[in-house]
Amino acid sequence: MTAAKPVILLSVFATFRVGGPQVRFAALANHLDSRFRHIIVAMDNQFDCRDRLDAGLDVTFHPLAYRKASLLRNLGLFRGLLRRFNPDVLVTHNWGSIEWAMANAPRLVRHVHIEDGFGPEEAQAQLPRRVLTRRVLLRKSMVVVASRKLEQIATQVWKLDPARVRFVPNGIDCDRFAAPGLVPLLPPGTPVIGTVAALRREKNLPRLLEAFRQVRANRPCRLAIAGDGPERAAMEAQAQALGLGDDVIFLGYRTDTELVYPGLKVFALSSDTEQMPISVIEAMAAGLPVASTDVGDVREMVCDENRNFVRGREADDLARALIALLDASSAARIGTLNQQRAREKFSQEQMFATYEALFTGAPTASGSAR
C-alpha cells in the first residue's frame, strides 16, 4: 500500500527565535512527524528554535532576502516563493508575517493565520491601520486565536466571520512539569519568586524588578529569571542600580524549564501584553501559585482561588500580590488547584488534534476547517 503523501506546510514567523509561538510550533511539528513536511521562513532569518525540532523531521529553513519598506518588491518575492514551494497550507504567525497573507491574494494556497497577541506598539490599543489590514486580508482565511480575548477582537474589532475564527487554547505536556523525582535547578533555602520569559520589552521585566525590590524590603526572598533576549543587559544594570545584588539570579536561556519551577515558591508574570502565556500554564502544571499583571486570559486561566492575585498593571499591584502569596497559608493549595486546572484545560493532546485538523482541512469540533 502506498504511503500517503505528506502535507506541506509553509510556516512564516517574524522570527524563529525561542518564544511561545515557536515553542508551540516545535512541539506540534514533533507530534505531526512524517505526516507533514515543513518549510520554515523567519523574516529576520533567525532560527534559534530549530534546536527544539526532532532530528528526523523533514524541515527546510529558507533564508529570506527581505527588505523593510520595500512592499512591492517583497510581495513579488513572497508570491514567487509561494508558487515555487506550492505548499498545501500557508501558515502565518502574528502581524510580523502579514505581508505573506497579502502576497497570497488572489489566493494561491489555503491560508491559516495564527494570532497570539500583540507587540509593545499595540499593548494598549489596536492601531487603526492594522485593524483595517487584518479585516481585509484575513476575511477568507482560517484564523486561529490563542485566547478568548483575541477571539472577541477578531470577530468584533476586525469584523471577521466567526465561522472562520477558531479559539485553540495553548497546551503543554503537563506530565513533564509534574514528573516525580525532578531535581530543582535552584537549591532550597530562602523563598524564590521566579519567571520564565523571553527578555523583550513587552515582557516588562523592569516592572518585576521594581516589584521584587518592594517585596524584598518586607521579607527575605530571591528572584530567579530564566530567559534571554535584547533586554538582559538593561535588566542586569537595573538590578544593580536597585541594590538587589545577588538576590536576583539570571539563569539565561533554558531548555530544561521543568527544573526551574520546582525551586520556586511563586511564579510571577509582569507583561504589558499577553494572551495565553505558555509559561503560566507550565507554572500551573508544576503546582505553583501565580502573581500576574491582569493581561489577556491570565485571570481566567488560573484557578478561582488564584484570581485575586492577578491584578492591575503597576509594580505596586504586582508586589502586593507577591507578598500575599508568599505569606498565604493557602498558597500550596492554590498551586495544587492550578495543577489540576492545567491538566483539565491545557492538555497538548487536544491542541495537537485541533491543529492537525485545521492543517489537513478535516472537520473540527466547531465545524469545517476549510
Description of the structure:
By secondary structure, this protein is α/β, with parallel strands linked by helices. The chain has two domains: 7-171 and 347-360, Rossmann fold, CATH 3.40.50; 174-345, Glycogen Phosphorylase B (Rossmann fold), CATH 3.40.50. It has twelve helices and twelve strands. It has helices at residues 20-32, 71-85, 98-103, 128-137, 148-157, 205-216, 232-241, 278-285, 298-301, 315-327, 331-345, 348-360, and strands spanning 7-13, 36-42, 59-62, 89-93, 110-115, 142-145, 165-167, 192-196, 222-226, 248-252, 266-269, 290-292. Strands 3-2-1-4-5-6-7 form a seven-stranded parallel beta sheet, with helices on both faces. A five-stranded parallel beta sheet has the order 10-9-8-11-12, with helices on both faces. Helix 8 packs across helix 11. The longest helix is centred in the first third of the chain and has 15 residues, at 71-85. It is globular and about 60 Å long. It starts with 6 loop residues before the first strand and ends in a 10-residue tail after the last helix. Mean pLDDT is 93; it is low at 366-370.
